[in-house]
Amino acid sequence: MDLFGDYTLRLVAVGSAILGATSGALGSFAYLRRQSLLGDAVSHAALPGIVLAFMLTGSKVPLVLMLGAGLAGWVGTLVVRLIVSRSRVPYDSALGIILAVFFGFGLVLLTLIQRRADAAQAGLESFLFGQAASLLKRDVVAMACLGVVALALLLLLWKEFKLLSFDPDFGASLGLPVRRLDGLLTLLLVVAIIIGLQTVGVVLMSAMIVAPGAAARQWSRRLAPMVLIAALIGVFSGVSGSVFSSTIPRMPTGPTIVLVLSLIVMISIFLAPHRGLLWRSLRLGGLRSAPDLDPVLMHLYALSHQHPDDPEHGHSVSVIRTMSPANAKVDAALERLADRGLARQTADGGWAPTAIGRREAQRILEREAGEGG
Amino acid sequence: MNEGKNGWALEVEDLTVAYADQPVLWDIDLKVPQGVKMAIIGPNGAGKSTLVKAAMGLVKPVAGEVRIFGRARERAEGAIAYVPQRATLSWDFPTDVIDVVTMGTYGRLGWFRRCGAAEREDAHTALDKVGMTEFARRPIAELSGGQQQRVLLARALVQDAPIYILDEPFQGVDAPTEGAIIEVLDGLAGRGKTIVVVHHDLQTIPEYFDAVLLLNVRAIDSGPVGEVFTEENLRLTFGGRVGVLAAAGAGEV
Predict the structure, then answer these.
(1) A133 vs chain B: nearest CA distance in angstroms?
(2) At what angle do helices A137-156 and A178-200 cross, to 10 degrees?
(3) ipTM exceeding the 0.85 mark
């Protein structure tokens, strides 16, 4: 079967790949900045923009509709900012409000224009869940141009965006205009979203933003690999989703892409090394048996009071062992305390707290007293 | 200590900051002489972090002025190296130790430019000073609290700024780290750097610092530890809650 010989399928696959790469890369930053819900709100908020753009221009040219979607999404983020800065409504609630209000307004507009006698509006409702088959060459070209600009800006401002995502206060202390950078990164996210609206639709678009980043984080320990893996996951889901949906009759492309993506996310969450659930459940068993240092240090400290004139007098391990519960790993704890400079082994084989260790013990006592009072 | 207008590393004048109409700092005046090690102490909610953030322009004041070496704060970019509170950062961020330390060079690198060999060299030197050389490629998610704090200090060292502001650097760190941080700060002060530390352990004030600001929304008093770190001032700052502990610390002065 010559899948990629099919012109429409080729177009859809290329479009989905562009969509996957941009939303994967930019979505990684949204994920790291804990702004996953922002993508959801922006994509839902885009609906009234699409319908209004059509009502004002009478045109269904994708670029016009994309512009409307982008403007509405952008206005949505501005209103969220306004709500958060002017009222006591928390950020996530403000996002929820904007999502519901804008999306509801979009549905009302959609219903209104569907009552019109002429059939010019037909097809607008496909923006709800996307309709990849309706992609034309000019649409894919527009998507590619937007995608290239967005990704180029991301690369150009890489270190600034990284700092903004990790430690914005420190960035501001260096003199970076963090508010403007924050606005720009959000704008790029809006661009990634409108690239995908025609293929995936406003309802499922947030999955394309959040899921590749969430999956990629599981497999990577640094930012550049994470963003690259997220983009690749996006491309892979986009292309394979398009191919699957074309081989199965009446299978919609957007939801298929999202299903492929969900599968990748689930596999990543369970199986990834270091961060995967499977790995961690194996590792946690090991962690639980780590020695508890504080009680052993406190015993040493208490023992050192028996020799007020020589606090570094050594005490035998067996004494400390009798003071501790039967299952306590006293020897391991002593070794670790020595590693951290809190205790040391004396010439006669006993153990004593160091000056630092005695002060640390004193501090633990004070902290416990403070919590008690 | 230098006197006169140009002897002050940091001057805060009539500073008032409010969140949602509630004043968190009220009419603060503060002068920090160059080369001094100053602690800012006060109870929870006294506005300690807000004060240092306002000094750097991270928080917008309702009123007041901040001057750095006699010039308006806006014109003194790069004069302050900042070590934020460790707990406010997301340590699950996908990056490694050396990358975080290199962030200290971003200010002098400027827009669009990438880090080169010189920046990485600086970062390794700073990492060495805090005893973390062997952790350079370690993901930050795998660090202990003390190691996290050392990394943040190394990042500030890379900036090589005349003023260092640290927010609660000893919070939840192990004793060796506390010793290492103090050693680094003493070294900086020895080279004429000005150090301001938001601090919570009253006992160590006389040992670690030579000046102190007692803060509780208002500036209760500030000056050399020997003069202003008194029981009376502590009572004014902490109210009835200052216990035997604080009295003991103050008594040793």
Answers:
(1) 38
(2) 160
(3) yes
